[in-house]
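In the laboratory, one determines a bound structure by crystallizing the protein with its ligand and collecting diffraction data. In a computational setting the workflow is compressed into a single prediction: the sequence and the ligand go in, and a structural description comes out. We illustrate the idea with zinc ion.
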Amino acid sequence: MAVGIIRVLISLYHREMQNLKQLVARLPKAELHIHIEGSLEPAMLLELAGRNGVKLPYPDIDSINDAYNFNCLQDFLDLYYQGMSVLQTEQDFHDLAWAYLQRCKQQNVVHCEIFFDPQGHTERGVDFATFMQGLGSALDRAESELGISSKLIMCFLRHLDEQSALTTLDSALPYLERIAAVGLDSSELGHPPHLFSNVFKRAAELGLKRVAHAGEEGPPEYVYEALDVLLVDRIDHGNRALEDSALVQRLADENMPLTVCPQSNLRLGVVSDMADHPIRKMLALGLNACINSDDPAYFGGYVNENFCALIAAAGVTKDEIFQLVINGFKSSFLTQAEIQSHLERIESMR
Ligand code: ADE
Ligand code: ZN
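The predicted complex, in C-alpha cell form:
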C-alpha cells in the first residue's frame, strides 16, 4: 500500500518536472549574460584550429571535455583565452555568433545581449574591424532570418590596466552604433571596479549603458563599487551580495538587475551544489534576478539547460520561472515598447 502511494507520488513529481521543463522550452526568453567567446563549442574549436593552422593541446573532442575540469574562475579563464586563439578571421567570428544565434532559435531565446572581449583579440593582432564585422553580420542575419533581436556589450578585461581599456574604447568609436553597453569581466579578485572609473565615465559620456561582473568571486565591496563608482545599469552575477544584508536591501530597493548564471556558478565553485543555488532566495528577497548561460560551451548548457538544472535540483516553481523570464526582458536594453510586447506574449502563456 505505502509502496503504491510512493510510486504514485514519484510519478506525479516526474510529470511536474516535465511540465516545468516544457514550459521553459515554450516561453520566449531574453539572454543578457553570454560571452560569445564562451559559446565556442569543442567541435568548432577543432574546426577553426584546423582552418587557421593553430596548434592546440587537444587531439579530439573527448580530450577537450577532459581538460574542462576547472573549479575556479582563473582555471576556466586560462582555457577560455587559449580557446579564443582560434578566432582569427571575420568569417570565424561570424560562424561563432551564428552558431550561438541558431541555438537561441532552438531554445526560443528571442532577444540576446552578447558580451565580447576585444582585448582578447586585439592583443593577438586581430583587428577591431575583423570581429566587429564578423559579429555584426551574424547579428543582422539573425534578425532577418531567425527573428532574433540582439545587442553587443563590449567588455574590458579587468586583469589589464585602465589605459588598455581606454585605448579599446577609442578603437570602438567607429562602431558605437553597434555597441549598446560596456562591461567588465575576467579575473575579479584583486581587480576591483574602481580601477576602471575613468573608462566607465567616458563610456557614459558616449551614451553607452554600463554593466560589470561583480560579486562572482569578489566580495560585496566590489558590488558597491560597481554601483557607486561605475554607475552600472546591471550587475553580472552578484551572488556574493547575499553576504551583506544592507546591500541586498539596496539592490532590491533599486530593482537592480542581477544576471545570474547557475551552471557557471556550479562549475566555477561559486556554489557547491545546484540544490543550494540561491536563486529562489534571491527572488524571495525581492532581487531582480534573471537566468543566463555565461559561457555555455564550457559550463554544460545554454539558457534552457540552466533553467532545467534549477528545476531539477533547486525546486524552482512555475511562478518563479515566469518571474525569472519576465525579469530578463525587463532588465534588457530594449525599448519600453519592445519589452511590453514581449511581456504581453509571456502573460498570455500563464
Ligand atoms: N569571462 C568569461 N566568462 C567570465 C566569467 N564567468 N567571469 C568573469 N569573466 C568572464
Ligand atoms: Zn560572465
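The domain at 20-347 is CATH 3.20.20.140 (TIM Barrel). Keep in mind that any predicted model is a hypothesis to be tested, not a measurement.
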